[in-house]
Amino acid sequence: MPINVPKQLPARAILEKENIFLMETDRATTQDIRPLKILILNLMPDKERTETQLLRLLSNSPLQVMVDFIHTETYQSKNVQKSHLEKFYLTFSDIKSKRYDGLIITGAPVEHLKFEEVDYWNELVNIMEWSKTHVTSSLYICWGAQAALYYHYGINKFERDKKISGIYVQRLINPTNKLVRGLNDVFRVPHSRYTDSDYQAIAQHHDLTILDESDEAGPLLIVSNDEKNVMITGHIEYDADSLLREYERDLAKGITIHPPHNYFPNNDPNQAPINYWRSEAYLIFSNWLNYFVYQETPYTW
């Protein structure tokens, strides 16, 4: 089934080349099928790249999906043209009276700050509080996951000794959870962050369940027992070259950093990286859409 995106969104041309099933709004509204309404708060600097990554993963479902993007009102991004935001994005003020089947909150490059020091923290708190009554299930990515753990469950983050960056092996410890249905017992995914949440506090929290573990990267998938919140600590949405771009960016800034772990073939930065996590990313998003959103959301809000 298709994903419904605006005709002129730049991500559309990329996805069409990949033979992703897209549908324009006019055609979608004539179908007698209730589409899922997904809201995406895009906090990443490269908004167009993140749009493409998330829409790609949302497309792998027999369900019709309609997506609204919002950006922060209290902070103006410096890495995207204002015209792009005006054309394709709303703000929380525009949608706060609506209800959504699903919400996605991305990562953000603000790890070095305490949560309350982030320019748009109060706005994000308002959105997360609103989601309790206006969203069936929310999915949080990387820093977004840390923010959710902090706001919803009082679990703080802490600085790592050094940045974790690369492809890490995860082992399922709760293979019967619906989110990981069909996932291999061992799988590899990208992580990229300077901070970690308190995983001992997560494991001891009566409202949370950790689904997997990694000796080096910690858990990737954490879900609330009521299935309202899904926290993904890594970046399963990343393209094959995303960590390469981050690595080259850090080198250009003069930051002393090792090449991403287990990322380049033969650990040679001159060789093109390979995507080892694509199938896992598609499956996790598909399971979230089906089991946590579609199967739980009311037909009429």
Automatic annotation (TrEMBL):
Localization terms from the record: Cytoplasm
Positions of substrate binding: 163, 192, 249
Entry keyword annotation includes Cytoplasm: yes
Gene Ontology annotations for the cellular component aspect, listed alphabetically: cytoplasm
Broad class of where this protein is predominantly found: cytoplasm
Record's keyword annotation contains Acyltransferase: yes
CDD domains: GATase1_HTS
Pfam family, one: HTS
Keywords from the named record: Acyltransferase, Amino-acid biosynthesis, Cytoplasm, Methionine biosynthesis, Transferase
Pathway assigned to this chain's UniProt record: Amino-acid biosynthesis; L-methionine biosynthesis via de novo pathway; O-acetyl-L-homoserine from L-homoserine: step 1/1
Catalyses which reaction(s): L-homoserine + acetyl-CoA = O-acetyl-L-homoserine + CoA
EC number: 2.3.1.31
Active site residues per record: 142 (acyl-thioester intermediate), 235 (proton acceptor), 237
Site (Important for acyl-CoA specificity): 111
Gene Ontology biological process terms from the UniProt entry: L-methionine biosynthetic process from homoserine via O-succinyl-L-homoserine and cystathionine
Residues of the site described as Important for substrate specificity: 192
Example GO molecular function: homoserine O-acetyltransferase activity
HAMAP family listed in its UniProt record: MetA_acyltransf
Family stated for the protein in its record: Belongs to the MetA family.
Protein function: Transfers an acetyl group from acetyl-CoA to L-homoserine, forming acetyl-L-homoserine.
UniProt protein name: Homoserine O-acetyltransferase
Species of origin: Amphibacillus xylanus (strain ATCC 51415 / DSM 6626 / JCM 7361 / LMG 17667 / NBRC 15112 / Ep01)
